[in-house]
Specification:
The complex is a heterodimer of chains A (about 110) and B (about 110). In chain A, the strands form 2 sheets. In chain A, strands 2, 4, 5, 6, 9, 10 and 11 form a 7-stranded mixed sheet that branches. A 4-stranded antiparallel sheet of chain A has the order 1-3-8-7, with no helix packed on it. Chain A is globular, with a radius of gyration of 13 Å. In chain A, a hairpin with a 6-residue loop joins strand 4 and strand 5. By secondary structure, chain A is mainly β. Chain A has no helices and 11 strands. Chain B is built from no helices and 12 strands. With about 110 residues, chain B is mostly beta strands. Classes of the chains: A mainly beta (about 110), B mainly beta (about 110). Chains A and B meet through strand 5, strand 9 and strand 10 of A and strand 5, strand 6 and strand 11 of B.
Chain lengths: ~110, ~110
């Protein structure tokens, strides 16, 4: 039990679909993250939320829309995606501002865009 | 700018042998933390070990140790007595004092041979 859960674990969608990824952390952390992991590339940080406020948006296309209703839940809303958006999407959480605490990751959602 | 470099895309090691996974980093910050994560085929990122830039001793966690050479900006992971369950991707990551963004390398795929 990692304390960070993600649903669904696998998702196949067409380019015109709208879907959402869900992340929930049971660790009492106050920061949550979305990462994109593509083959042979470093993890790409997409969004960071501290105390429910978005603090980082690393030039992510608007077809990805995050939502953080509370410090335990994080969503990634997807619409009109492209095939190159197919990847593993990882959610993570950490306790801030304690220096250098590790991030705890969920199992990821493997997304395939047809 | 912060950067993590892992130059070994793939490594093989005999079961019960030790293996070293290389990681070099680049930052102008004086205060930073270095992390190693393991990612099995299931996709979840598992935290292994942490080294602070001001820590004088190399970090150890069970069979994992971090060979920290600050002047060379390297933070190699040493796995002793390899087990079949160690087969996975291994990622080196860094975090600097400012902000809570983690910087990841491209990873090393480790295969343990029986």
């Amino acid at each position: 039990e990692t304390g960070v859960t993600q649903t669904p674990r696998h998702l196949v969608m067409g380019m015109t679909n709208k879907k959402s990824l869900k992340c929930e952390q049971h660790l009492g952390h106050n920061a949550m993250y979305w990462y994109k992991q593509s083959a042979k590339k470093p993890l790409e940080l997409m969004f960071v939320y501290n105390f429910k406020e978005q603090t980082e948006n690393n030039s992510v296309p608007s077809r990805f829309s995050p939502e953080c209703p509370n410090s335990s839940h994080l969503f990634l809303h997807l619409h009109t995606l492209q095939p190159e958006d197919s990847a593993l999407y990882l959610c993570a959480s950490s306790q801030e501002p304690v220096n250098y605490n590790e991030q705890f990751f969920g199992p990821g959602t493997r997304l395939t865009v047809l | 700018a912060q950067k993590i470099t892992q130059t070994q895309p793939g490594m093989f090691v005999q079961e019960k042998e030790a293996v070293t996974l290389d990681c070099t980093y680049d930052t102008s910050d004086q205060s930073y933390g270095l992390f190693w994560y393991k990612q099995p085929s299931s996709g979840e990122m598992i935290f292994l070990i942490y080294q602070g830039s001001y820590d004088e001793q190399n970090a150890t966690e069970g069979r994992y140790s971090l060979n920290f050479q600050k002047a060379r900006k390297s933070a190699n992971l040493v796995i002793s007595a390899s087990q079949l369950g160690d087969s996975a991707m291994y990622f080196c990551a860094m975090r600097v004092r400012t902000g809570n963004q983690f910087y990841f390398g491209t990873g090393t795929s480790l295969t343990v041979i029986p």
